[in-house]
Design brief:
The chain is of the alpha/beta class. It has two domains: about 130 residues, Aspartate Aminotransferase, domain 1; about 240 residues, 3-Layer(aba) Sandwich (Aspartate Aminotransferase, domain 2). It is built from 14 helices and twelve strands. The strands form three sheets. A seven-stranded mixed β-sheet has the order 2-8-7-6-5-3-4, sandwiched between helices. Strands 9-12-11 form a three-stranded antiparallel β-sheet. Helix 3 packs parallel to helix 11 and helix 13 packs across helix 14. It starts with 13 loop residues before the first helix and ends with a helix. It comes from Ruegeria intermedia. One of its GO terms (molecular function) is pyridoxal phosphate binding. This is Aspartate/methionine/tyrosine aminotransferase. Its cofactor is pyridoxal 5'-phosphate.
Length: about 400
């Protein structure tokens, strides 16, 4: 039996790698999970009621692009959040989680060639792993651009060689960044949009952490694109309720962009997608329309930022995140630090190299661990203090 080779060189995904590293060792104390970005704050209590009220919808096939109510609620949220009015019919599609959209957008929109050559898909490094797999799936070359302290923890796409930019078809960008928590400024977005216009590539903007921040809401790419009068087909936005509303399991995401782009993604979705069941769409529409619970959730994370800043105040190289709910902590070796923590304390974190690409000496995540601030506040504080005392004392 023959198997395709296109994915043969993929490393194991981050969490199977973590299990292989840690699980044959006993934890050194009560287990504290700080690896996965799965929010543990309460979601709005009325979500269950909405699902029950609309339970008859489980008997129906849901619309491919999302219900009118859901797309309308998403359009209203984009208008409130970014000051950009988009047509729910032509500019927006509901997703079964943003990972689906981040993958399928490349399938639907990345060309087979760019200037007569294999296309390049730019990815920040470290990065959300679906960016790489989507690139490989469409026969493009994923091109990993370091996002380090030297570049403000965002990729310096403008500094790439001309021959790379001439082959670039798509650039993925995550702001606020996972895992570093860096936020793209208006100037960063403007420079990236102008670069995309000059070299004729698309921007896939992953803004899934946009509603968790310290003070001011992060600037979104749609706001800057409107100010610049950019081609709406050049920019595709992704967001979801997973982090904003603590509803990772609801799988309500969005993709928004130019009408031709969304048309092509919808067409692919009709053949190969799995839209949300109607009762879940009804709940999602209600959640997108409500901001009270989002403000309450953000306040909880702001308390956690303050705790983290206090715990790591004396740690050299500690970088307070601007947004999101991860700490990107400097260590000598991420794998060794994660193993030491687990064996000596029971605190479980993710080695940064599992989120990056590159040889050991050139992997920008090797000297970091990612720590998720999603556990209840008291448990999180205990985990951070334990981590500090184990790794930095």
């Amino acid at each position: 039996m023959n198997f395709p080779e296109r994915f043969s060189n993929l490393p194991a995904y981050a969490f199977p790698r973590l299990r292989a590293l840690l699980d044959h060792h006993a934890p050194g104390g009560d287990v504290v999970h700080m690896t996965i970005g799965e929010p543990k704050h309460d979601f709005p209590p009325w979500v269950t009621d909405v699902i029950v009220e609309n339970a008859a919808g489980f008997q129906k096939y849901p619309p491919n692009e999302g219900s009118d109510a859901l797309r309308g609620a998403i359009a209203d949220w984009i208008d409130r959040r970014y000051g950009v009015r988009m047509d729910p019919e032509t500019n927006i599609m509901a997703l079964n989680g943003t990972r689906e959209g981040l993958y399928n957008a490349a399938m639907a929109l990345c060309p087979e060639q760019k200037n007569g050559q294999q296309p390049i898909v730019l990815c920040p490094n470290p990065f959300y792993q679906v960016y790489m797999v989507a690139s490989i799936s469409v026969g493009a070359q994923p091109y990993f651009v370091p996002a380090t302290a030297a570049t403000g923890h965002l990729p310096d796409y403008a500094g790439l060689p001309e021959d790379v930019l001439n082959r670039t078809a798509v650039a993925y960008i995550c702001s606020p960044a996972n895992p570093q928590g860096a936020v793209a400024s208006r100037d960063y977005w403007a420079e990236l949009i102008r670069l995309a216009e000059r070299y004729d590539f698309r921007i896939f903007a992953d803004e899934c952490y946009s509603e968790i921040y310290r003070d001011a809401p992060p600037t979104g790419i749609l706001t800057v694109a409107r100010e610049l009068g950019a081609d709406p087909e050049r920019i595709t936005l992704f967001n979801s309720l997973s982090k904003r509303s603590n509803l990772a399991g609801l799988r309500s995401g969005l993709i928004a962009g130019g009408p031709e782009s969304i048309k092509r993604v919808k067409q692919l979705r009709a053949y190969a997608g799995a839209p949300l069941p109607l009762p879940l769409q009804a709940a999602a529409a209600r959640v997108w329309a409500d901001e009270t619970h989002v403000q309450e959730n953000r306040a909880l994370y702001q308390e956690k930022y303050a705790i983290a800043d206090q715990v790591f105040a004396g740690v050299q190289g500690y970088m307070p995140p601007e947004a999101g709910f991860f700490l990107w902590l400097p260590v000598e070796d991420g794998e060794q630090a994660a193993l030491k923590l687990w064996r000596e304390t029971g605190v479980r974190v993710l080695p940064g190299a599992y989120l990056s690409q590159g040889d050991p000496g050139q992997n920008p995540g090797k000297g970091f661990i990612r720590v998720a601030l999603v556990a209840p506040k008291t448990q999180m504080q205990r985990g951070l203090i334990t981590l500090r005392d184990c790794i930095y004392s």
